[in-house]
Amino acid sequence: MRQAETPTAGRSRPRPHDDRMNRNAAAAPDANAAAAEAPLPIVRIPMLDRDHQLVAYELVLQSDGSDDETAMHRLLSIIIDGSIKQLSRGNLVFLRLSRKLMMEQSDFVLRQPYIGLVVTPDDAADEALLAHLTQLSQRGCTLLLDLGNHALPASDDEPLGKLLGQVQFARLDAGHLDPATLAERCQQLHRRHLKAVAGEVEDHAICHRCMELPFAAIQGGYLLVPEKVDVPVLSANRLSVLRLLRAMQEEKGGPVELGQIIRNDAILSYKLLGCVNSAYFALPCRIKSVEQAAIFFGMTRLRNWIATLTLSGMSDSPPELLRAALIRAQMCEELAEAQGMPKPQREMAFTAGLFSLLDSLMCVPMDFLIQQLPLEPEIRDALVERSGPYAPLLEQVTQWESGKIRSGQDAQPMQIRRLAGAYFKATSWADHVYTFAEGRAA
User: Fold this and answer.
1) Is 94 helix (H, G, I), strand (E, B) or coil?
2) How many Å apart are CA 293 and CA 174, to the nearest integer?
3) 301-320 core/surface letters (b: 16 or more CB in 10 A; e: else)
4) What is the b/e burial string over 114-136, where b = at least 16 CB atoms within 10 angstroms of the residue's CB?
5) Nearest residue to 95 via CA among 69, 76, 122
6) Which helix (H) or strand (E) is 196 found in, with range?
7) Closest to 345 measured CA to CA, from 308, 385, 390
8) What letter would DSSP give residue 356?
9) How many of the other CB atoms lie within 10 Å of CB of 159?
10) What's the pTM?
11) pLDDT, tens digit (0-9, with 9 covering 90-100), for 160-212
12) What's the CA gap between 119 and 199, in Å, rounded?
């Protein structure tokens, strides 16, 4: 939900967390000015337990064309000033630091107990680094060993065995290890009383396989991929959500008609008014009714916001999947604005982003859902055909959330910086809105 586009509230105002995220470390004086001033190109990727609850985030630094040392110092800067907590939401978060920063600046990490470090088998061969990581572990730093396809050591006396003895988490490449090897190595880690993480889980078949093993967490793109079903079946909760979404899309009346649609849902109305009146949006006056909100913000935007809170309130969907839908929606709108699209198109871009994960949220095919919702043709084309003006926006967002964009290979540096800025704003917005959807906001 963005501020109303009025003479008072419509102008973009800088937010404190944006300023902190853009601050550079003093130790990087030679950084390219454009890269140094841009938001840090980070994406957070969740690790979920078998109940789809968050275990930790991994913050993946994407390449925006700046050199690695500059990027590392910028990463250190958001640790030092505490703004990394905006992304972690106070949860355990893992990140990679260069060898130099781990050796020289790890005290800053130790001061933030929710920050853990990702280490690799190659680190075990570095005696000085291994000794330092041992000290960090003994001082309370949480370590995750990214084993990938690497075999477990035969003896604890080997360098890798010594490192394995200091970590609390160990990640396996579940997407490329054969089932028998994956099961054997997961059991080995479990017997060591380590928390095994299944990484590179890109589809539900691999996810189900991992669910049968003692993995403490599962990580990968499977969460954003709809699970195949033979016959679409909607639970009572999801059917209720779909009916409300359809009613809002069908109703082309004014604020009074929109207010009548959700009048019987007191909880939804309460959450909507609480969210739009929060300090985050800093409105010049207090909104007292859904009808007043529709007049102030506009019908399309308010429909989008109601859809946002409706989907976010689905108790039978993984919370991180809901957050991902909100982030997609806001990123698509931010990118549409950056491209100079007019307000109506920006609002449709938001809808396209929000509904792009509707099949995963509802656990039914997108074709089935599209038949139930009277969407604008451009939105339908983006969701089903991956064509039209909003398809390129969705493509950029899905590439970004994979955490694997590389400057010059997948996108130009300027485009990556634009995506980084949109992602920071969208993540902050999504986290804020989700607190109201859960009913936890003050």
Assistant:
1) strand
2) 48
3) bbbbbbbbbbbbbbeebbbb
4) ebbbbbebebbeeeebbebbeeb
5) 76
6) strand 195-199
7) 390
8) T
9) 15
10) 0.85
11) 999 999 999 999 999 999 999 999 999 999 999 999 999 999 999 999 999 99
12) 14
